[in-house]
Amino acid sequence: MELVRSLQLVAGEEVLSIAGLILLLWAAWAGDKAARAISIATVAALTVAALIAAPALCGAAMGADTIAFGGQYRADAFSAFGKLLIYASAAVTLIVAPAFFDRFKAMRAEFPLLVLFAALGMGIMVSATDLLTLYIGLELNSLASYVLAAILRKDERSAESGLKYFVLGSLASGILLYGVSLTYGFTGTTSFTGIHAALAAGTLSTGAVFGMVFVLAGMAFKISAAPFHMWTPDVYEGAPTPVTTFFATASKVSALALLMRISLVAFGAVPQAWQQIVIFAAILSIVIGALGAIGQANIKRLMAYSSINNVGFILIGLACANQPGAAAMLIYIAIYVAMSVAGFVAILMLRDEDGEPVESIADLAGLSKTRPGLAAALAAVMFSLAGIPPLFGFWGKFVVFQAAVQANLVALAAIGIAASVIGAFYYLKVVKVMYFDEAADKVRGKSELAHGVLLVIASVFISPLGYLLTNWLHTLAGNAAAALFHF
């Protein structure tokens, strides 16, 4: 009966696995000409998996009824929150990808399959409650992601980004695995709840501290937090823009959710041992992200530094080491995903008359005169990322700072608020170029209908209308955070 119950709890992963195997055979037989049909089928599979996960979030699922496979997996409200964002981000990636790859005649049948298997790995990551499950999900995601970054084989930038991602990602996986080995060696278990109990029952040994540091260092790479951020600008710039969208949304959600479960569950008994590490990474990410973005001339590199900066703000919620801080993190992550989708879809729509991407910020000069709607949407994204009210991005920063103040981390909140002013400079620089510089008239390509629809939906969410969803978002984030602390 336990096996049957476990199989019921992993129904979403089963759907994605079976769909992946069937579509893999389809791709092998039909070839690249079936790429669009396979993409549509993959979006359908992701939608079914999301519908399976949604009741757990809405019903605030937690406790023993959510445990599968002897405690290695949890299908609780927290994991459901992460999975819904991951599957939605993966679906957006598949919707925007065909138009981009068609320009290079490079839409391959394996692209949607790689996205599907990466999303499957991410789903396992956010449900992992054991170090072994964690590593299986992480590697399934990583192996697909390395190939996605280099999928444009004839593009030197794409090949370079894939190679850098692979080399540095392998190093980070090694660091993480070493930390996992040390943690197991000094606690005697790989279960998150077992590690929590072992750390709570005894004196924190030096070996366990080293294991904790190595695990957090490996996870810092995955979320592109400073000082492990060096791969992010190159990979974001070199990878195809739909892949960059996937990395900035789904990959970020899964890694942050996994970091939350490791820190607050496995290491939650000794928060004093890792809080200072998180606070240091948060401040460093905020500062490096803000200062690094100032001199960028490429819009995708600017968004990469923006992601580093925003990860720093999200980590402020983790530094609180309590349930309100976790709920604030989840709210910020949800809003950040919407902002990233809007930003990268807008970047995909920046094309010249030959259909080539326009990525230079200087080439956006006077965009408000030639493409006013696109310029307005991109300006809304920049203002929202900067946290300027009344756009919805302000609310994400507000709830995180509020949680920090309530947790007596006033100095950290003050540093974050001050650094937000620095960040506002490079966001406003983009707006200034679009609205006040002489028109360069480089962006003349036609936009895809699907891109326009997604941009409108995401822009409405991050607009002041997004505040109408605050009660609903707070309820869902509260359910997820409560499930995370119910173990």
TrEMBL record:
It catalyses: a quinone + NADH + 5 H(+)(in) = a quinol + NAD(+) + 4 H(+)(out). One of its GO terms (cellular component) is plasma membrane. It is found in: Cell membrane; Endomembrane system; Membrane. Belongs to the complex I subunit 2 family. One of its GO terms (biological process) is ATP synthesis coupled electron transport. This is NADH-quinone oxidoreductase subunit N. Residues 128-423 form the NADH:quinone oxidoreductase/Mrp antiporter transmembrane domain. The gene is nuoN. NDH-1 shuttles electrons from NADH, via FMN and iron-sulfur (Fe-S) centers, to quinones in the respiratory chain. The immediate electron acceptor for the enzyme in this species is believed to be ubiquinone. Couples the redox reaction to proton translocation (for every two electrons transferred, four hydrogen ions are translocated across the cytoplasmic membrane), and thus conserves the redox energy in a proton gradient. NDH-1 is composed of 14 different subunits. Subunits NuoA, H, J, K, L, M, N constitute the membrane sector of the complex. Keywords: Cell membrane, Membrane, NAD, Oxidoreductase, Quinone, Translocase, Transmembrane, Transmembrane helix, Transport, Ubiquinone. Its main location: membrane. Its EC number is 7.1.1.-. GO terms for molecular function: NADH dehydrogenase (quinone) (non-electrogenic) activity; NADH dehydrogenase (ubiquinone) activity; quinone binding. It is an enzyme of class 7 (translocase). It is a multi-pass membrane protein. The keyword Membrane applies. InterPro entries: NADH-Q_OxRdtase_suN/2, ND/Mrp_TM. The keyword NAD applies. The chain crosses the membrane at residues 15-31, 43-64, 84-104, 111-128, 165-186, 198-221, 277-295, 302-321, 327-350, 374-395, 407-428, 449-469. Pfam families: Proton_antipo_M (PF00361).
